[in-house]
Amino acid sequence: MSAPLLETRNLEIRFGGVIAANDVSLTIESGRNLAIIGPNGAGKTTFLNICTGWLKPTRGQVLFEGKDITPLPPRKIVRRGVARAFQIPQLFTEHTALENLLIAVAAREGLRNPVRDLHTIPERAEMMHLLEMVNCADVADRTVVELSEGQRKLVDIAVALALRPRLLLMDEPTSGVASSQKHRIMEILVEALAQAQVTSVFVEHDMGIVEKYADEVAVWNAGNVQLRGTPAEVLEHPDVIRDVIGEVA
Amino acid sequence: MDTVSSAARPQAPATGAPGLRLLATLLAVAALGAVPFVAPTMQLLVNLALAKGLAVMGVTVLLRAGQVSFGHALYFAVAAYGGAFLMAAMPGADLLLLLVAGVAGATLAGLLVGLFVVRYRGIFFGMLNLAFSMIFWSILEKFYHITGGADGIRLPRPTVLGMELGRGDFELVLFYLSIALMLGLGWFTIRWFASPMGQLFQTIKTNETRLEYLGVSPRRALLSGYLLSALLCGAGGVIMGVAQGVVTPEYAWWIRSGEMVFIAVLGGSGSVQGAFIGALIYEFVRTYASAFAGDVWQMLLGGFLLVIILFAPRGVIGIVEAIGRRTARSEDTR
Ligand SMILES: Nc1ncnc2c1ncn2[C@@H]1O[C@H](COP(=O)(O)OP(=O)(O)O)[C@@H](O)[C@H]1O
Ligand SMILES: [Mg+2]
């Protein structure tokens, strides 16, 4: 029996009086895309912060492919195959969209040649393809400050994908993206993730998206997983309709 | 405004501009190269400006990562003293050996200090560098049995490829070596800025969180540029020491460090060409204005910097480039 892709055991963290993670135990199986839903302030982003080593839990463990990664800094967890896209995009704002991806690939490949122009690396075509995938090829040469909020979110996801992770964590990937584009982007994204055998965890407020693209759903409430199951099971549940869907709608 | 429109232009630099830039560079280098024959009285002045320009280029590297060091004269001094000690230990040592040893010493010092200071950013980074340079300055002052104290130590004329040259010939060699270093190290630094490693280094300025989430240690990325900056300051220090024939604690003094930052901003923050243009302007104004009237040069340079910061924040090189673009555009439409 192989270990789950990611497993958390009894995670706990507090900020002053707020318990942002209250005994969170969760397993993520390879190949099963998990959506995390729940009201604002429930601790969803905090969970991603702990899983990637940005925050250290006061109690509990995070295991990636069966190995304890709790004490590792984010960069070491990233190098093991966990990439992240952020609720607020984290990009190099003075660089272009394409350059953000080229820099990511330089990091992934550990490129060292001190006099080779980053723009001439062979992975450039691969990165242009990624930008096409997230519908941003036309703004490849725009600096980040010139992009719309939605475009920044998409480039941020592309940057994470450029790292060729095995697990991709996305915090509200389609917020800020025009609603006409949301489904198209998710369609392409989920398809590409399946092809590259990347498992994803995404925090999402749009229940239409959750229903269509998640294999499983975990409902967060007050720092813990209140409920977990298939989209059909979870989205029908009266507690969820009352606490989550009611609030978001 | 200008940055937005130029960045929005997708990968289509104004036609003629790269050629124009090359031409301008060639003309400038040719003019510099002609100084010993056309204006021999200015040769030493220009040589000292080139030495400073090399060091300023080091400060410029850090500006690209949004960091300012107020202590980089440390590396300037380490290299110069390294050269002087080497000459004392090996009389008649070769100029190239001196250069390599001085630069290696500065880079090593950069590694030792760098490992510590790359943990800090902004004002703390700037002040910690200052602190290290002040410690080194006081060591140079106090341990005068070894360092010669405030008087410094002599740096006698080295040999060149095994030859003992007379003063005039040696100064000529040093002058062209300085130009060669400007071209070689300038070329390398410009290429490095565009390289994967240089690009990772420059992301320190905008987003260390993302850098960490690319699997890269921001400290290590900063250290790579820090080492380059120490190396460049070291090259400048050796040239300065050899040109002056004596090295003093003043090389490590904080005013020197401040001067480097001043020149970097004057010439154009983050620009390699600007570092040298700034250094030349600085030395000329200082020399000729102080011959004119004492203390007037500080006022002139201060006023000049004020105007630059207010009206041309990209420095002298920014002005030059703007003129170049205009020229290229008017030629296009012709
Ligand atoms: N770094 C932090 N410092 C203090 N409080 C925090 C921090 N991060 C999150 N919190 C608090 O923890 C709770 C959960 O936040 P978060 O994980 O961002 O929720 P969600 O992403 O589900 O909206 C909130 O009350 C938030 O204010
Ligand atoms: Mg959140």
UniProtKB/TrEMBL annotation, chain A:
Highest taxon, organism lineage: Bacteria
GO CC annotations, alphabetized: plasma membrane
Database matches in SUPFAM superfamilies: P-loop containing nucleoside triphosphate hydrolases
InterPro entries assigned: AAA+_ATPase, ABC_AA/LPS_Transport, ABC_transporter-like_ATP-bd, P-loop_NTPase
GO MF, one example: ATP binding
Signal sequence region: none
ABC transporter domain sequence ranges: 6-247
Alphabetic keyword roster: ATP-binding, Nucleotide-binding, Transport
Keyword Zinc: no
Protein name, per record: ATP-binding cassette domain-containing protein
Organism for this UniProt entry: Halovulum marinum
From TrEMBL, chain B:
Organism domain of life: Bacteria
GO cellular component: plasma membrane
Main location group: membrane
Membrane-crossing residue ranges in chain numbering: 20-39, 44-63, 69-88, 95-117, 123-140, 173-194, 226-248, 260-285, 297-320
Taxonomic placement: Bacteria, Pseudomonadati, Pseudomonadota, Alphaproteobacteria, Rhodobacterales
GO MF: branched-chain amino acid transmembrane transporter activity
Protein name, per record: Branched-chain amino acid ABC transporter permease
Its membrane topology: Multi-pass membrane protein
Alphabetic keyword roster: Cell membrane, Membrane, Transmembrane, Transmembrane helix
A Pfam family matched in the record: BPD_transp_2
Cellular location(s): Cell membrane
